[in-house]
Amino acid sequence: MAPAQLLRVRGVVQGVGFRPFVFRLARAHGLAGWVLNAGEGVQIHVEGPAPALDSFVAELAAHPPPAARIADIERGAVAPRGFVEFGIRESAPGGALTVRVSPDLPVCEACVAELFAAGDRRHGYPYVNCTDCGPRYSIVLGLPYDRQRTTMRGWTLCPACAADYDDPLDRRFHAQPVACPACGPHFRLRHGEREVPGDEAAIREAARLLAAGLVLAVKGIGGYHLACDAFDAAAVAALRERKFRKEKPFALMAGDLAAARRLIELPAAAEALLTSTARPIVLAPARVEIPGVAPNCRDLGVMLPYAPLHHLLFAHGAPAVLVLTSANRASEPIAYEDEEAAARLAGIADAFLIGDRPIARRMDDSVCTLSALGPAVLRRARGYAPGAVARLPAAGPILALGADLKSAITLVVGGDAFVSQHLGDLDHYDACRAFQETVRDLTAMYEIDWQRVVVAHDLHPQYASTQFARTLASSKMVPVQHHRAHVASVLAERQALDRPVLGIAFDGTGYGDDGSIWGGELFAGSVRDGLARVAHLRPAVLPGGDAAARHPVQAAAGYLAELADLPDLTAAPFGFPPLYLRARELVRKGVRTFPTTSAGRLFDTAAALLGFTRPISYEGQAAIWLEQLARGAAPAAPGYPLPFAAPELDFRPLLAAVIADRRAGRPVAEIAAAFHHGLAAGVAAAAVELARREGLDTVVLSGGVFQNRLLLERTAALLAAAPLTVWTNHQVPANDGGISLGQAALALPAAGAGLPRELR
Ligand code: ZN
Ligand code: ZN
Ligand code: FE
What we know:
It is a single chain. The chain folds into five domains: about 5-90, 2-Layer Sandwich (Alpha-Beta Plaits); about 100-185, DHBP synthase (Alpha-Beta Complex), CATH 3.90.870; about 185-355, Alpha-Beta Complex (DHBP synthase), CATH 3.90.870; about 385-480, Nucleotidyltransferase, domain 5; about 535-730, Nucleotidyltransferase, domain 5, CATH 3.30.420.40. About 30% of the residues lie in helices and about 20% in strands. The chain has 21 helices and 31 strands. The strands form five sheets. An eleven-stranded mixed β-sheet has the order 7-6-14-8-9-13-10-12-11-15-16, sandwiched between helices. Strands 28-29-25-24-23-30-31 form a seven-stranded mixed β-sheet, with helices on both faces. Helix 14 (about 550-560) packs across helix 15 (about 580-590) and helix 16 (about 600-610) crosses helix 17 (about 620-630). Mean pLDDT is about 95; it is low at about 755-760. It binds zinc ion (2 copies) and fe (iii) ion. One zinc ion binds near residues 160 and 179.
């Protein structure tokens, strides 16, 4: 009898057309046996001539279906059973639930073709999908992944769809969300008292209203969007006013790649990001100016259609470029339930385009950008979550709760680190609820035993996530210092847990070992042996503590108090408002002031000195403003001094130079550039000195401040010239959205990790 083998394939292998693919591949190789979905992935029994078996496995590993992500294939000889055919078997129950849920996928080309093929039974159907495309995580209610455990369970397949679903050779074989106009959910439009039923009529009317300048709430994959014509300045202004969003840039959806190319600069790597299966918003230098969309910003955030509905809207006459922003107010999470959306968006949207298919969990659009160091995720959500981003070899499960701003959690099961979608800022009730739901959601999905789980959380005693950690029934709590977590997030991504590095965390704020507000920290060490703080920005005081983050002049009052011979900053050219004087009074009296080494607040101080004297209207705004200003300057401006005398980087000469040049009337763009260049040069010089002292050859850059491309690229270039190896975040954000991954890595010793050689 021919030899037989049993293969166990792990990774994203369910709900992505894996079994029909295996079926066709096995038949093409003349092999017999079966394939089935099991708790830990896909199992394949194949028998046939040895060379055919080998080439079958090689082909499987090299060219899996487009949406699949194979983590590993375990392969062993078993007794042949004398099969004569290859078949697809029913799912095997039980087994450890380490099977991965696929992120949501964009509609594929074959489905788009059907969408626009006259006479096709899914012509114009906004819920068209197949095993290569469509919703996944956003409709999953439980595991294993089948229709009864998705939000499609309320719709029964018609005979035609059932035939597609049951045919191993069909593109829709076991596509759980499969549907058609005869049996599936539909869209309708609500405009005041008027309701337009029927997919085509509703979508046509929505497109017409968008073209007429109205603001629409549109139900998407992970929640509702607010949409309007991007080139209709009045519509954009109305949306801003109703959404209480003064200045934060809006994301755009371009009808197609050609339209996107007219909006932003798209080198090949950026285009690859834009068209990748995550279909993120790509933040790139703008090629056009669109009034009101991204005030004071040289970048635009653009995405391409990813749901069939988006393609239909553009085809039915919607404006070629839409503002498409999460339906919420300020930094609340995206609305995803119909009644919730109707209530929350009542005063914002003129009309609602509503789809019947429920959304299991809210999911914002992801945001990516491209720097000289490669692609970076700034917000990780739809299309990425809940993908595994790293192997963390823990003996038991780890739940890491992240930070309070830009919350996201990480769950480590079976050595895989799954990072949740972006959940928002936990000081909002809805975000806090989403955070708790996500903890329940992921731990239930992977059947986590609360007695065994190690819970990692931020060191900050007042964080909502820390307080939530205390309510959990876990026996092991691991507090992790915020900036060490930032550095560790990069090392986790790189699978370099034993690698000794110099880690630089430049950040807004985080709770330090000594209870002060850290944010300009340099560490030496590794994830395995711990990260020792070896240097930091010279401490300043922050009047009003974290509240100073909203008022650049308030932060400035603290940092500038360190300087001698300060001019009157309320006078020209500075024109600081009275808030500055009140904050300076707090500093003088030592009332409600907190020591800080925050690099973020240093940026705020420089921004205030160059004219950003109003309060910010979104997080990080002053620093972003300063970067945009600097990018407008002629290149090669020499930097201001930032001397290093261990363990302190002294910011005083840097700020003194900013003040002197401003008073001398130097153009503010040039001053902003010299500030960036000086900071980069000072940090790089300190890092080179410390790396030499500690015998290190690798520098890690993380923390929210390194989302600043100018600072990141300049610092990295200087370090690379040293020469040192430079690593930064790619898969999780450098901002607090990446904290939970770093926490999980630093909790490994507590989780009884035995680090295998391969990860050192
Ligand atoms: Zn498809
Ligand atoms: Zn049907
Ligand atoms: Fe942070």
